Amino acid sequence: AQKITQTQPGMFVQEKEAVTLDCTYDTSDPSYGLFWYKQPSSGEMIFLIYQGSYDQQNATEGRYSLNFQKARKSANLVISASQLGDSAMYFCAMRGLRDDKIIFGKGTRLHILP
Amino acid sequence: NAGVTQTPKFRVLKTGQSMTLLCAQDMNHEYMYWYRQDPGMGLRLIHYSVGEGTTAKGEVPDGYNVSRLKKQNFLLGLESAAPSQTSVYFCASSHLRDRYHNEQFFGPGTRLTVL
Fold it and tell me: Rounded to an integer, what distance in angstroms lies between the CA atom of residue A51 and that of residue B76?
């Protein structure tokens, strides 16, 4: 069975600093996809970034990048130059080979301090 | 485009009552999902569908049923509501860009309270 683990329930970071949100996963599938989503206090879910296990390079999208270490089964989200608007819940998710399920971790609540 | 819409936005039920949550998408997506979000538990997959007329169980399917009679709609039913089903329910849809890349588009959520 697939499993996503986010070990940081909450983080406090000073504005303009870089942030790393941890995500480890467990799967027996040879190939899979990894996703990060943001959920602001307003409640909507916003897609941030995708990484395929077969991709040669780590994914980047603007200030978001993914530190993907396949051997360690980790897919950490890095936010550069954090902003107050980055304060939100962040979820890591995974889709495997064998079925079409997309499962989520429990999330990390990020607080950006002015 | 409206994207993904959910009806209703809020609902209060008594234990044992039934209800149906409606999810609609206008993006012609093949995949649709129902999740529940509870404090400290993240999003847990209830059921999902990979196309019209198909459904499959997720991580927490007990107490729920689903139907996808039309491609654009995905219904979640609670036959006999229990207080443990108090939650925020999210619907999502997606299409497959490549092998595993199908980022989901989420609805605004339905807040359900079962007394």
Answer: 30
- Give the distance, in angstroms, between the CA of residue B88 and the centroid of all CA atoms in the same chain: 10
Chain A residues with CB-CB distance to B111 below 8 A: none
From chain A, the residues in CB contact with B103 under 8 A are 35, 47, 50
**Contact, A102 vs A94, CB < 8 A?**
yes
> Tokens 């499959």 label which residue?
B56
Mean pLDDT throughout A63-77?
96
In tens, the pLDDT along B40-72 reads: 889 999 999 999 999 999 999 999 999 999 999
**SS3 of residue B31 by DSSP:** strand
Cα angle B71, B43, A45 (rounded to 5 degrees) comes to 70
